[in-house]
Design brief:
The structure is a single chain. Helix content is 34%, strand content 31%. It is α/β, with parallel strands linked by helices. The chain folds into two domains: 134 residues, P-loop containing nucleotide triphosphate hydrolases (Rossmann fold, 3-Layer(aba) Sandwich); 120 residues, Molybdopterin biosynthesis MoaE subunit (Aldehyde Oxidoreductase, domain 3). The strands form four sheets. Strands 1, 2, 5, 6, 7 and 8 form a six-stranded mixed beta sheet that branches. A hairpin with a 4-residue loop joins strand 3 and strand 4. Helix 3 runs parallel beside helix 5 and helix 6 packs antiparallel against helix 7. The protein is globular and about 55 Å long. The two termini are 38 Å apart.
Amino acid sequence: MRIIHVVGRSNSGKTTFIHSLIPLLREQGKTAVIKHLHSHHFEQTPGKDTTTHYEHGADIVIGTDPEKAMAAIRNGSLHDMLNLLSDQGVEFTVIEGHKAESFQKVVIGDLEIENCVLRNPKPEDVLTHISEFSEVCTLQGLVQELKRDCMSDDTGCVAAFNGIVRKVTGTEITETMDFTDTATIHTLSEDIRKGMEQIPGVLGVRFHHRTGVIPAGDDLTYIAVIARHRQEAFAALMQGIDRMKHELHDAGKTLEGEYHGNA
């Protein structure tokens, strides 16, 4: 999911720009918008059932009508909402505001800020430069992408794998894994993905490997395979996981001391 982060000073024209951008993005794929409300809290209608359900402690309340659904989500951080949108198969999310976030940005006006990809562009320019914007990936998002792009009449299954940085392995403790060589990670990940797709019966593979310094307990890798039969999907997963382990992870592990408890 690409993140188009639109920032600028108040009354600079951010909202007008986004209104022009949304139809162009929708022609390319499913599109969402997140608006930072700052201190202006969203007011729920007093006395309505959706409001009282929330007031009585529901973590999520959704109201539906024949045309749309509206949700109130308790303690929903920006990154939680981005993951939720990715899970729903959204391909483009426009963020208005949240200037402190580190996503690649479209700047409207004269605001000086880091990570500026475009300043005062035409909406069409965003599509031209779309590959330069940040991505958010979830496992379910990859599954949605595979179903959208690779489904056929003989599709029989989707198999998925979520790799996590394991802290304890025997007597070793892994505090972090270092994947800061982004270019190498992306090149090798793509080579692994292509190799998995060569297995007969596999219709498509999506492979996402996080970069940077990843702490123990965090998600590290998402792999999804769509295939005619489960045996083919499992074979592709095992091949990809084994290559990832030996060619990427053993080199990326940083050991901090020893573990002296029970393994």
